[in-house]
Write a structure and sequence with these properties.
6-stranded antiparallel sheet, about 270 residues, 4-stranded antiparallel sheet, 12 strands
Length: about 270
């Protein structure tokens, strides 16, 4: 089995968390509902991004936008080690005081030494906050928030833009809305075809072209994102699995681990620190 060690670090702010991963694992295509940015500490990585195939090396900032489909595999050495901080969209908007339409990070790989150093300070402060006793955290919490604001503002001021991607056609938006409807049973491909007036083949191919994944894979990863939020907000693992339409807790765990690189149990323990 490929080497894979993952740590999840809570933060003082709801809607912000970090991962520290050392892995030889290849990740299939997936996305996150959050902004993600950080850097490689060791090794290198190649991945599919919203801008095509890219490569990242130590000393560079790496980033993904909310909803941006990506994968990942080691490049050169068999393992790579990285730190990423994930920030909810509403938190990013609040931190950067953005009055524009939702901004997106313009490049998945960024050469910006000052931003890199700022992120080093951010992760150092987050480690310190996680290692403190609860009664000693307030001062470290303030230091972390200051570093987070500095990181987000520099990132978006120098490397952000308004949403760049072309909106998919209305029929494909309807398909995604139907897949994302928590109140309904998962649709069949025939259901989606009837909804849009397209053939099943057309739905399958056009959806994957627009969103980077076929409908079933997109649905599973959307459910994993929803489960992450429910667990963060206090749901048990079994309740989160049931609420998000997984067959059982084991099924949720498998999909969750492929999506995030860590299990729901690890995420729940980290979320309890917030």
């Amino acid at each position: 089995m490929a080497q894979h060690v993952a740590r999840v670090l809570a933060s003082p702010l709801k809607g912000v968390y970090s991962t520290h991963i050392d892995s030889a694992q290849q990740f299939g295509r997936h996305w996150h509902d959050t902004y993600g940015f950080g850097f490689l500490e060791h090794g290198a990585q190649e991945w599919f991004s919203g801008r095509g195939i890219v490569r990242g090396y130590p000393g560079e900032v790496i980033a993904t936008n909310p909803g941006e489909v990506h994968d990942g595999r080691p490049l050169g050495p068999p393992t790579r080690r990285w730190r990423i901080v994930y920030v909810d969209v509403d938190v990013m908007t609040a931190l950067t005081a953005s009055e524009r339409a939702r901004a997106e990070i313009t490049s998945p790989v960024i050469a910006d030494p000052m931003l890199f150093r700022t992120l080093q300070g951010l992760f150092s402060r987050l480690e310190r906050w996680n290692n403190r006793k609860p009664h000693a955290r307030p001062v470290d919490s303030l230091a972390f928030e200051e570093a987070l604001v500095a990181s987000c503002v520099r990132l978006m001021a120098r490397h952000g833009s308004v949403r760049w991607s072309h909106a998919p056609s209305r029929d494909l938006q309807q398909v995604r809305e139907r897949l994302a409807d928590d109140s309904a049973l998962a649709p069949s491909l025939a259901d989606l075809a009837r909804l849009t007036g397209l053939s099943r083949y057309q739905v399958l191919r056009r959806f994957e072209r627009a969103y980077g994944l076929p409908p079933h894979a997109w649905l599973l990863r959307r459910r994993a994102e929803r489960a992450r939020v429910l667990i963060r907000d206090g749901a048990t693992l079994a309740a989160a699995a049931a609420a998000t339409g997984f067959a059982d807790q084991s099924h949720m765990t498998r999909v969750f681990a492929r999506q995030f690189g860590f299990t729901p149990g690890v995420w729940r323990r980290a979320a309890w620190l917030q």
